[in-house]
Amino acid sequence: MKLSKxxxxxxxxxxxxIIIFFLISFSSVLFAQDKIRGKSxxxxxxxxxxxxxxxxxxxxxxxxxxxxxxxxxxxxxxIMAAEKYGATGVGVDYNPERVKExxxxxxxxxxxxxxxxxLQDAMEVDVSPATVVTLYLLESSNALLKPNLEKYLKSGxxxxxxxFDMPGxxxxxxxxxxxxxxxxxxIYLWVMGEQKEEFQYxxxxxxGKSxxxxxxxxxxxxxxxxxxxxxxxxxxxxxxxxxxxxxxIMAAEKYGATGVGVDYDPERVQExxxxxxxxxxxxxxxxxLQDAMEVDVSPATVVTLYLLESSNALLKPNLEKYLKPGxxxxxxxFNMPGxxxxxxxxxxxxxxxxxxIYLWVIGEQKEESK
Length: 370
Ligand SMILES: C[S@@+](CC[C@H](N)C(=O)[O-])C[C@H]1O[C@@H](n2cnc3c(N)ncnc32)[C@H](O)[C@@H]1O
Fold this sequence. Notes:
Elements: H1 2-33, H2 49-58, E1 66-70, H3 76-85, E2 88-93, H4 96-108, E3 115-119, E4 132-135, H5 139-152, E5 158-162, E6 173-178, E7 184-191, H6 219-228, E8 236-240, H7 246-255, E9 258-263, H8 266-278, E10 285-289, E11 302-305, H9 309-322, E12 328-332, E13 343-348, E14 354-361
Parallel strand pairs: 1-2, 1-4, 2-3, 4-5, 8-9, 8-11, 9-10, 11-12
Antiparallel strand pairs: 5-7, 6-7, 12-14, 13-14
Helix pairs in contact: 2-3, 6-7
Bound molecules: S-adenosylmethionine (SAM).
């Protein structure tokens, strides 16, 4: 009996060791297959082949071209560019599963000397060899890629995007059509060197309910908000209702962060864009004319607000749905109903403007129910 207890104990120890061994080996396999670092620019939804064909037609792809698809999925765009037009193709995706699938397709078609699939974050890719870039991401992701495209693409290169516009670019051509099975789509074509919007002539507010009147945050308070959120060059700061863009401009200027300002008032957008240009921050800060309620905030690591408590409440579901854990939300003067703040500052500026700043950290903001 004693002996069998000892044997049992040995068996348990051995089993525990085996389990630990497998967990360690398996986790390394998992790790090897993990997505490489980089934020999701869009979920995986392949472009229908009919639309791929139209995108390549619109870009007038030929055998002289090098086509980069940023977020290439199963590689269908670059494969068709090579197969149908003899172009060189480079597909980039940050998901190893997609890269594996695309590489297998390239091999199956015997296109290895024409098409390369790269496992990389699209934000990090050197696109300078491209003469054509294709996109099927989101408008906010296009905005994030824009500085790289403007910096590296040669004049005359073409950029085509399925369904999503590029804020601040003037399309050379836009197609609205539907496929045989009634998939409605839009394709935008821009030509580098011709894509810059002449001074915007936007007259009307985009549809959307007013979340707050325009009252700018004093610069001293902007500084405190960014400090409280510990903004760094790794951050992407979204200001929802950005007014003259001062918050995202300071985030970029002082901390090297990427900034995205959103306002539904064209006057504010125009003013903010002019300030961004004046400061030479076009590659760091994008100002979008959009209803803050409609904005995809998923690329943000920091969101700043100076609206009203009732407007914060309206934005809350989107923030909870799209922000990643660890993202910070800071609000000037107005609380977020039902959120537990990580920190609150009450202070006054040198000229006696009394203010409050709330900081919440996503993942830690839920109020325990009483
Ligand atoms: C109080 S100001 C804050 C400006 C800036 N964030 C700051 O702190 O200096 C509010 C801004 O929200 C904008 N706004 C109001 N409703 C909006 C909506 N539905 N979508 C986007 N912007 C909105 C206004 O045009 C205004 O510029």
